[in-house]
Amino acid sequence: MVGVPGGKLLIKNAATPHSRSTTDILVEDGAISAVGTLEGEGMDVGGRLVMPGFVNVHTHLDKADLLSKMSPDQYGKSLEENRELLKALKKNYRVEEIRERAGRVIDEFIANGVTAIRTQVDVDATGGLKPLEALTQLRDASRAELQICAFPQEGVLREDCLGRVEDALKSGADLLGGLPLVEKTREEQLQHIEVLCELAVKHDVDLEVQVDESNNPEDFLLPVLAEKTIEYGLQGRVSATHCISLSAVDDKIAQETIRLVKEAMMNVIVTPSANMITRFDTADDVHSRASNSITRVKELLAAGVNVAVGTDNIRDIFYPLGNCSMLRELHVLASATRMTGEEDPVRLLGMGSANGASIMGLNYGLEKGCTGDLIVLNARNAREALNTTPVIPYVIKGGHVVCESVHEVEHGG
C-alpha cells in the first residue's frame, strides 16, 4: 500500500522503540499528524517495529563501488597505499560514471531503510569538481535526503586546493569537510584545522572533520578541533568523525577531551566497520597497532555528546566490503563496544537514525509534526531488530512507501 500524493498514510498496530504496546501513526502531507488509537483502515504492520528512517551521516558516494574497477591484488592495502591508488583511478573519472555508481548505491541504501544520507565528495586537483557535479545531479533527483560535504582529499593548504574547495562551496556543496591527516607535519595539520574554521565562518556552513583515524595517542587532534570550534563561535555546527585515538589516550586525558567536546556542542560520528578495518603502516611505530579500534562511544553518550553512525566507504579502495545495511553497522558497533545491555539496542537504533538526523538538521521522530520518513523493521522490538535478518519490509519517505519487501514481513519477527 502506497500513500497517496498529498494525502494520508495510516500505519496500524505499530510497535515503537520506547513502548511495549502498539500504536497507530498517521502521516499527512509528509509529516506525522497523529499518534495513538486512530480510526480507519491503513497499512497493518502486525506489531512490528516502526521508527524514523536510518540516517547514514557519513559515507563517500563518489567512491562507492570503485571495487568494480580494481583487481584483487589491490585490496587490503595501507591507508597511504590506498590514497595513491585512488589518485590513479580518479584520473579516469567521468561525471556519468560517478553518477551511475553512486546512484546504484543510493538505491541499495534506500532498500536498507536509509532515508537520509550525508556524503563526502572529493574536491581536489586530481578529480576536480566532477564528483560534485555528479552528486549534485543525484541530489536533485534522489528519493533520499542527500547532503553534500566538500571533502578536501588532498588538503587545503595549497592555494589551488583552497580555491577548489571554495569553488565547491559556491557550486552546490552543503557543508565543508576536512582531513588534517593528509598534511605532512603536525604544524600543517593544525593549520589545516584553522583554515577549515575560517572557511566555515566565511561561507556560513557546517563543518565535519575526519580526525584521529589511528590508535596512536600521538595522533590526537580532537581536543584541538574542539578548542577551535569554541574560538570561532562554531558551537553546534561541527562534527568530528572517527576519533579513534580517543580510545588510545590516558583515561584522564580522554575524559577532559570529552568534556571539551561537550562544551563545544560537537557531534561525533563513528563508522564501525571501516574504523575496524583501517590499516596503517606501523612496522616502526611502537605506539600503534596494525589493527584498529573504535572511539569511546559509551563514554561520549554518557557525557551527553550526540553520537551518530555512518557506513563510511562502500565497496571501494578504503573498504572493499559493505552491503549498505545500517543494521549491520549497528551490530558491528554493538560488538566492538560491548553495547549489549538492556537499553543499548534502543540507543543503537537512535544513533543510526535520529542522532544523525539531528546533525543533518532533519526533524526525525515519532511525535506529531515530525517528518514522515519512517521504516518498518522485520522485528517487534529493538533487540530483535539487531538479531534478525537485516531486511526492511517497508521504507516510507514523506508518507509514501518507496520500497517494500512484503514477503519478509510474513515470515519475520
Structure description:
The protein is of the alpha/beta class. The protein folds into 2 domains: 8-52 and 364-411, Roll (Urease, subunit C, domain 1), CATH 2.30.40.10; 54-360, Metal-dependent hydrolases (TIM Barrel). Helices cover 35% and strands 21% of the residues. The chain has helices at 79-90, 95-111, 130-141, 159-170, 186-203, 222-231, 251-263, 272-277, 297-302, 326-337, 344-351, 354-360, 382-387, 406-411, and strands at residues 8-16, 19-28, 31-36, 43-44, 50-52, 54-59, 114-122, 145-151, 175-178, 207-211, 238-242, 267-270, 306-309, 374-376, 394-397, 400-404. Strands 6-7-8-9-10-11-12-13 form an 8-stranded parallel beta sheet, sandwiched between helices. Helix 4 (159-170) links the parallel strand 8 (145-151) and strand 9 (175-178). Helix 2 (95-111) crosses helix 3 (130-141), helix 5 runs parallel beside helix 6 and helix 10 crosses helix 11. The relative contact order is 0.17.
Can you summarize this structure?
The chain is built from 14 helices and 16 strands. With 413 residues, the chain is of the alpha/beta class.
Task: Indicate the mean pLDDT.
Answer: 91
CATH fold node name of the largest domain: TIM Barrel
Taking the sheet with the most strands, its summary is: 8 strands, parallel
* Tertiary shape: globular
Number of strands: 16
Rg is 21 Å
CATH-level-2 architecture of the largest domain: Alpha-Beta Barrel
In total, the number of domains comes to 2
Structural class given helices, strands, pairing?
A: alpha/beta
Distance between the termini: 20 Å
What oligomeric state do the depicted chains represent?
Answer: single chain
Determine the strand fraction and express it as a percent band: 15-25%
Please report the first level of CATH classification, the CATH class of the largest domain. Answer: Alpha Beta
Q: What's the name of the CATH homologous superfamily of the largest domain? A: Metal-dependent hydrolases
Number of helices: 14
Strand order of the largest sheet: 6-7-8-9-10-11-12-13
